[in-house]
UniProtKB/TrEMBL annotation:
It comes from the Eukaryota. It holds the Pfam family Rhodanese. This is Rhodanese domain-containing protein. InterPro entries: Rhodanese-like_dom (IPR001763), Rhodanese-like_dom_sf (IPR036873), TrhO (IPR020936). Signal peptide: none annotated. Residues 217-228 have a biased composition (Basic and acidic residues). Residues 201-228 are annotated as: Disordered. Residues 2-123 form the Rhodanese domain. PROSITE patterns: RHODANESE_3 (PS50206).
């Protein structure tokens, strides 16, 4: 069984073929997902294959084949995990092994190393990989991807997303529009106007104590004589 330990918004734009999506919004939720879907199923005697979220639909991995001849809800003997650069899956591997699983593996170097070394013709990767920098997403060979960032929710958005009526630059996107109140959107619009006008949220006085605001302009107006 292969598990993607990244957040759901990262998995939404790309993952390995057949990998399980835990549908977590933050990495801190991953231990709870493991406890719920591995240990509870084991303690409760298992569930049918169609109800077990650990088994991807139309999966062709060895766990899927073995499950046809074993008890329903049989826990996989081997678990492989991956993430963007390898740090999160290392932590996840340690956690799963601490719970008694022995055959636990992770992708060394993460997705980025895989995309850098494996050519598209031999790759099992589908889509693009979300990255936490200005690139937003990368493709094979670590080439610049096609996604942009919604600055309201920090999730990746596609060209199709930006054609939606829910897309408003710096305010909302189709993935967060329904979660924001009109008051929140109004504040976001004000921040965006400040950024467009001054290049920084908060305007030219950002970070300047109220008592000192305007002093620099006054000093420039009456320069000190250098003739003394």
């Amino acid at each position: 069984m292969v598990v993607d330990v990244r957040n759901s918004y990262e998995i939404r734009i790309g993952k390995f073929t057949g990998a399980v999506d835990p549908r977590t919004s933050a990495f801190r939720e991953f231990p709870s997902w493991i406890k719920k879907h591995l240990f509870m199923h084991q303690c409760n005697g298992g569930v049918s294959q169609s109800e077990n979220p650990l088994i991807p639909e139309n999966s062709t991995n060895d766990f899927d084949e073995q499950s046809k001849h074993q008890l329903p809800g049989k826990i996989p003997r081997r678990i492989a995990m991956y993430c963007t650069g390898g740090i999160r899956c290392e932590k996840a591997t340690s956690f799963v092994m601490s719970k008694g699983f022995e055959e636990v593996y992770h992708l060394e170097g993460g997705i980025l190393k895989y995309l850098e070394e494996v050519p598209p013709s031999e790759s099992l990767w589908e889509g693009e990989c979300f990255v936490f920098d200005k690139r937003v997403s990368v493709e094979h060979g670590l080439k610049q991807g096609t996604y942009k960032l919604c600055y309201a929710c920090k999730e990746p958005v596609s060209d199709v997303d930006m054609q939606s009526a829910d897309w408003e630059y710096g305010v909302s996107c189709p993935h967060c529009c329904f979660m924001k109140s009109e008051e929140e959107k109004a504040r976001a619009r004000a921040r965006q106007r400040q950024f467009e006008m001054w290049g920084v949220v908060g305007g030219p006085n950002k970070g300047v104590p109220p008592g000192r605001r305007g002093r620099d302009k006054k000093r420039d107006r009456f320069p000190i004589s250098r003739s003394l």
